[in-house]
Amino acid sequence: MGYRQFVKRLFPYLKDHIGKLVFTSIMMVFATVLETSIPEITGQIVDTLFSSNRSSDAAFSYSLILFIVIAMSSIFALISISASSWISNKVILDLRVEYV
After folding, report:
1. pTM confidence score
2. Which of 72, 87, 83, 64 is nearest to 30 (CA)?
3. Which of 1, 19, 51, 58 has the most Cβ atoms closer than 10 angstroms to its Cβ?
4. Portion of the chain with pLDDT greater than 90, in percent
5. What is the four-CA torsion angle of 43, 44, 49, 52, rounded to 10 degrees?
6. CB-based burial of residue 85 (10 Å sphere; 0-12 exposed, 13-18 middle, 19+ buried)?
7. Backbone angles phi, psi at 53, to 5 degrees
8. Using alpha carbons only, what angle is made at residue 24 by residues 19 and 28, rounded to the nearest 5 degrees?
9. Where are the domains of the chain?
10. Which 8-state DSSP code applies to residue 52?
């Protein structure tokens, strides 16, 4: 069975969950965008700490921002993983109910 045939057979079971799949995809995008900003924030912290006119307030601010970004990224990732697991379990349940 090819990929197209597989998707064609699976789509009727997924169409009830399209909104949830879009929501899951958006959460994954948010988590990825936040994760990709972590090296930039870390670089700003290092630049601030090792500059000649370092400021503890700026270092604290960057550290707080880094913590918030990591926390938000983790929350978005958790939501997307939970939602995708729920969707896959519902589709499997629908398949089992139909073919039993």
Report:
1. 0.80
2. 72
3. 58
4. 53
5. 110
6. exposed
7. -110, 60
8. 150
9. 3-98
10. T
Of 29-33, 45-49, 60-64, 89-93, the least confident: 45-49
> Tokens 């993983």 map to which residue?
81
The two three-digit tokens of residue 57, written as one number: 């307030």
Question: For residue 20, which of 76, 74, 86, 70 has the smallest C-alpha distance?
Answer: 86
CA angle 59, 62, 65 (to 5 degrees): 150
Give pLDDT, residue 73: 96
| Polymer length of the chain | 100
Stretch 53-62: mean pLDDT, rounded?
80
Give the residue carrying structure tokens 């090792």.
Answer: 50
Query: Which of 78, 77, 84, 81 lies closest to 29 in space, CA to CA?
Result: 77
The dihedral built from the CA positions of residue 60, 61, 67 and 70, taken in this order, carries a sign that is negative
